[in-house]
Amino acid sequence: MSDSANVTPNNLDAFWMPFTANRQFKKAPRMFVAAKDMYYTTADGRKVLDATAGLWCVNAGHCRPKIVEAIRKQAGELDYAPAFQLAHPKAFELANRLVDIAPEGMNHVLYTNSGSESVETALKVALAYHRAKGEGSRFRLIGRERGYHGVNFGGISVGGIVANRKMFGTLLTGVDHLPHTHLPEKNAFTKGQPEHGGDLASELERIVTLHDPSTIAAVIVEPVAGSTGVLIPPKGYLKKLREICTKYGILLIFDEVITGYGRLGTPFAAQYYDVKPDIIITAKGLTNGVIPMGAVFVTSAIHDAFMSGPEHMIEFFHGYTYSGNPMASAAALATLDTYKEEGLLTRAAELAPYWEEQLHSLRDCPYVIDIRNTGLIGAIELEPIAGEATKRAFTAFLKAYEDGLLIRTTGDIIALSPPLIISKSEIDELFEKLRKVLMNNI
Ligand SMILES: Cc1ncc(COP(=O)(O)O)c(C=O)c1O
Questions:
Q1: CB atoms < 10 A from the CB of 388, how many?
Q2: What range defines the domain where residue 33 resides?
Q3: What share of the chain is helix, strand, coil (3-state, %, to 5)?
Q4: CB 218 within 8 A of CB 141
Q5: Atom 7, ligand 1: which residue's CA is nearest?
Q6: Distances from the Cα of 72 to the Cα of 35, 64, 214, 326, angstroms
Q7: Is 373 helix (H, G, I), strand (E, B) or coil?
Q8: Element (H, E) at 203
Q9: Which of 305, 330, 308, 323 is CA-nearest to residue 85?
Q10: Do 333 and 229 share a structural domain?
Q11: How far is the CA of 227 from the centre of ligand 1 (A)?
């Protein structure tokens, strides 16, 4: 442990924390000072089982030796190389490795530094693609109610979480939304894909008819919606979206920021659900959460549409100072090595049945109104306290933390997404601890 590890800063005022109840936190701070594999260590020396892979990003578990070593080495070898008109070899090596695990035909990669930036990049690629093809009238973007696509203006425009949108004015114009697919009255306690709601994809036909297909550039959805509290696509839903997009020449974008890199037991959700989008958005698990980095995959058809005009000209006016930077590329390469050596991109498939069984065993706990799961994802929806929405789940989060378990809550939903290295005995520990919390008068 480093010298600073045990020091709790005595003034917490200056840091305005993201997506945090700042005043509550600063009265009773929760600080991690170290982590290894499945466990965090708190400032007061307690071990906390990580049931959320940090924020859905630490898929290989914490402080994995290969990744740590790769970053150390890279920092001393090549710290930074300009990203525009210059490069370094690892950025290309990584792109090739990524294309190898991506669905067939996703042959090109643009780098970003986060999920939010990957979203903006994907939306801009979609708009510019149609224009490059001479279909500049396609300017509309279609998102979905309850969707989460990060926090930047494009992302909150196509996103559908009200609290993330309502404070920020007019957002992007020309955006419409599909209905969400959460139908608890019909689908509660479903294991895997719900039976009901597949037809909701047909709402895209209505939207297309309303605006005319010639105005629509892209549809963006999370294959499994995470931040809104884990909504699993109903049977047939994603395939239907694909069919309608293909019929009208609309690009289908999958935001795989949480499902990418093995969460469902395949490298990407596109493979799990056997539906091929035109663009895949990723971040988080790409570097195991260690260094900020995102990657947007596009098909050759999209990429090639930009490759015309004079060769000395920039083809796409977009990019970041840190796109594919050496440290992030080194971390991502070591992450992919770790995933490969330990079979982590498919491990969730082996664990899923056990995970499902243990998760659904909480059905008899008080206030549990729904449980849902897919791959190594689980959600437990709690009945809200009358007039105090979100409080019951937040109380559960605080109690779990005290009892040595890190869960994540959104609204009154507990979301679980442990590192893909979790063992069966750690799954047992997770659900024993969670049962205790839920039985404890929250
Ligand atoms: C589906 C999805 N898209 C985008 C994002 C934004 O990623 P970031 O926080 O890295 O900007 C997230 C983050 O949770 C996400 O779940």
A1: 11
A2: 3-60+349-438
A3: 40, 15, 40
A4: yes
A5: 115
A6: 17, 12, 51, 12
A7: strand
A8: helix 203-211
A9: 323
A10: yes
A11: 8
pLDDT at 49 > cutoff 80: yes
Helix axes 237-248, 203-211, angle to 10 degrees: 20
Amino acid at 290: V
Centre of ligand 1 to C-alpha 220, Å, is 13
Select from 293, 317, 341 the last residue of a domain: 341
Nearest-CA residue for atom 8 of ligand 1: 115
Pair of tokens at residue 63: 């402080």
- Which atom in ligand 1 lies closest to the alpha carbon of residue 56? 14
Q: What average pLDDT does this structure show over 365-378?
A: 98
Lining ligand 1 with CB less than 6 A are 114-116, 119, 148-150, 222, 226-227, 255, 257-258, 283
pTM for the whole structure: 0.97
Query: Tens digit of pLDDT for each residue in 167-180?
Result: 999 999 999 999 99
The pLDDT score that the predictor gives to residue 268 is: 98
| Closest approach atom of ligand 1 to CA 222 | 1
> What angle, 0 to 180 degrees and rounded to 10, lies between the N-to-C axes of helices 65-77 and 326-341?
160
Of the three residues 311, 341, 371, the one that is the final residue of a domain is 341
Report the candidate in 172, 183, 182, 174 with the shortest Cα–Cα distance to residue 149.
172
Rounded to the nearest 5°, which phi and psi values hold at 215? -105, -5
Mutational test site, ligand 1, from 284, 286, 322, max ligand atoms within 8 Å of CB: 284
pLDDT, average across residues 80-100: 98
Atom of ligand 1 nearest to the CA of 155: 4
In the predicted model, what is the mean pLDDT of residues 314-337? 98
Burial of 288 per CB tally in 10 Å (0-12, 13-18, 19+): buried
Q: Which two tokens stand for residue 51?
A: 């049931």
pLDDT higher than threshold 50 for residue 1 = no
* Count of residues in the chain: 442
Query: What's the total number of domains in the chain?
Result: 2
Axis-axis angle for helices 424-438, 391-402 (nearest 10)? 130
441 pLDDT higher than 80? no
User: In the structure encoding, which two tokens stand for residue 247, read together?
Assistant: 């019929």
User: Could you tell me the CATH number of the domain that includes residue 77?
Assistant: 3.40.640.10
pLDDT tens profile 145-204 = 999 999 999 999 999 999 999 999 999 999 999 999 999 999 999 999 999 999 999 999
